[in-house]
Design brief:
single chain, mainly alpha, 6 helices
């Protein structure tokens, strides 16, 4: 249930940012002047809401690539909680999740080192 609430909050946040054009600043970037692994995700989601997949990919390419897996995880989590009353990941799901986390960090380091 908590994940569903978080998803609803995220969707509302993206809609509000889209309408007023201002969101919560990234504290990592504010203090380090470097991009964090999540920088560009909000803009990417807004571009997706407008149907602009190319621009969404430019804002955060890895997010767009990993979005189907993130949606899959959310659906599976909700299904497993509904059926078994607990959240858990299978071994391959856990492995893919960690691979994505590592890719997000590596992408961030590459962008900070070579493109800023």
């Amino acid at each position: 249930m908590i994940y569903l609430i978080l998803v609803i909050i995220l969707i509302l946040y993206v809609i509000i940012v889209d309408k007023i054009g201002m969101g919560i600043p990234c504290l990592f970037r504010l203090f380090t002047h470097l991009k964090c692994p999540g920088c560009g995700i909000t803009h990417s989601l807004i571009a997706l809401l407008h149907g602009d997949i190319y621009q969404a990919f430019k804002y955060h390419d890895l997010f767009i690539i990993s979005l189907p897996f993130v949606i899959y995880l959310l659906v599976v989590y909700l299904y497993r909680y509904h059926k078994y009353h607990r959240y858990y990941l299978l071994k391959y799901e856990n492995s893919i999740t960690w691979i994505l986390v590592i890719l997000y960090v590596v992408r961030c380091v590459i962008i900070d080192l070579f493109f800023i």
